Each structure stands twice: as C-alpha cells, then as structure tokens.
Amino acid sequence: MTTADAPARDADPPGGGAHLALLGGRRPLAAQIGVLAFVIVPLLALVLAVPYAWGWGLSWVDVGLAAFWYTVTCLGATVGYHRYFTHRSFKAKRPLRIALAVAGSMAVQGPILHWVADHRRHHAFSDAEGDPHSPWRYGTSPVAVARGFWHAHVGWVLDRDLTNQRRFAKDLLADPALCRVHRQFGLWTAVTLAAPAVMGGLITWSWWGAVTAFVWAGLARVALLHHVTWSVNSVCHMIGDRPFAARDRSANFWPLAVLSMGESWHNLHHADPTSARHGVKPGQIDISARLIWIFEKLGWAYDVRWPAPERIARLTAGAAPAA
C-alpha cells in the first residue's frame, strides 16, 4: 500500500497545533454536577417510566413526540456536531451552520466546542494513548475489557479533564456565533426538555399530557440517545465487521445503524473520516448521509465529500484479513 492509499486518520485538525497540550483545564465543579445530573436523571427516568407505562401512561402522542425529538437531536449530533463541525464532510450556508449547532446542542451531549475537541482528539489517537474513550485502555484481559467498556461507554464522560480547544477546535473558536451557541448550552438543554412538554400539553390540552411528554419525549429520549451515541464509542470499537483498512479497532455494528442514523458503520468512518457517507455498501442504511444529500439538493450544503468508488476499493484492499 502506498502512502497515498494509506487509511486516513485525523492528525491535527483544522487550525490545530501539535505543539499544544492535549488537555486544556478541568471542568468546574458546578458543571461537573450538571454532567452527573444529565447522565443519571434521564437514565433513571427511562428505567422508572418503562414499568410505569405497562398498560397505561404512554400514549401515541408521547411516542410521536419522542420519535420526532429523537430524530431531530440525533441528526443534530450526527450531521452537525460530527460530520460537519468535526470532520468537515461538507460546507454549509450560515443559517444551516447555526441550525446544526443548535440541534446538536439539544442532544445534551455537551457544548459544541467540548464535543468537537474531544472527537478530534479521539481520531488523532484512536485506540492509543491519548484517546479519551478507547475501550482498550486497560488491556485485553476479561477484567480489563470490562473496565474498558465502562470507560468508553460512560466513564470518560465523568472525567473532569477537558480537551484543549485551542489545539483541537481552534477553527470553531474563531467563529463568534458558534462560541455563542457553546455558551448557550444550558438554554438549549432547557429547550430540549421543555419543548416536548409544551407540545404534549397543547396537543392533549392537559397537564397530564405535558407531564408524560416531558418524561418520554424529554428525559427518556435523551437517555436513549445518550446510550446509542456512547455505544458507538464502546461497542463499535469492540464488536463487528472490519472490511476497511483503519489504524484502530473500529468496527461496523449493524444493529445500531438506524438508531444511530448511520454512525455505527464505524469502520469506514475511521478508515475515511471526512467522508459524508459512512454506510457505503449495499443495504447499509445511513440516514445522516441521506439528510446531507437533501441539504445538497436544496443548495444549503455544498462541496460534499462523497466517497469515491476507487477510494472505497483501495480501503477494502488494504484491510487486514479477518481473524
């Protein structure tokens, strides 16, 4: 394999500098308490709501609102935070740029600058020292793998150390509008929880409709989205197919394809990080890529980095033989 054909791996991102430290400080105590709350409270709501809804307490309004808000916020994270802001898979006109930043913020996975810096750092050091959430951090023994899974899935979220934004997100720091959205993370978190409740109350014209919509389309939806996203970090670096050449253990895990909006086609993503499409083989559903295609057709997105067949062929040819 020639250097030109080697599997892609992000080194230092746009505007970054390898001379800068990996870490850029620690999360303030108040913010750390907020992180703990939004890891624990939505999950607790989901655990309690499921048996509570057995036979009653869950309406089609709740289901519809939860599906709507899950789709909007998940795509905000996958198309916005991930494929656009982190990897520059396409260019977007300014209204779409701001809308994607807001929609990603409403996924409640952290302010945009933190998210992008963490993910660029992950690609720069994937499954190696410096990766913020590799499941192979502690080794390959059964106990080490169990510890690594916990760390990759949720443990790393609770780490107070912050990735250096000046190294990994300097281009976003230069955009005042994005910095403003970053500072407004608390506002968008409130909106993503309150709006479903307001909608549920208005549709059913009842306080009870507002309460159940808050639980299901607010808290439970956030919990589900959290764990689907975190599963890409954990499960998709442990289990699945590896048909493409990547310098880490990223894998394709088909059961998560729809819920993750195409993010679980993770092996291709790590082999070719800037590709706008992750599911490139027949039958690989990639809802995020389809939305980017729609944006392109509407003229809202341009210079989309669609995967070229010859590039896919080279990455396939360079893949390690199956074990």
TrEMBL record:
Sections of the chain in a coiled coil: none
InterPro entries documented for this protein: Acyl-CoA_DS, FA_desaturase_dom
Fatty acid desaturase domain boundaries: 59-274
Record localization: Membrane
Record-annotated membrane-spanning stretches: 33-54, 66-84, 96-116, 214-232
Membrane topology: Multi-pass membrane protein
UniProt entry tagged with the keyword Cell inner membrane: no
Keyword annotations from UniProtKB, A to Z: Fatty acid metabolism, Iron, Lipid metabolism, Membrane, Oxidoreductase, Transmembrane, Transmembrane helix
GO molecular function terms noted in the UniProt entry: oxidoreductase activity, acting on paired donors, with oxidation of a pair of donors resulting in the reduction of molecular oxygen to two molecules of water
Chief place where the protein resides: membrane
Pfam families in alphabetical order: FA_desaturase
Family of the protein in this entry: Belongs to the fatty acid desaturase type 2 family.
Protein name (database record): Acyl-CoA desaturase
Source organism: Dactylosporangium aurantiacum
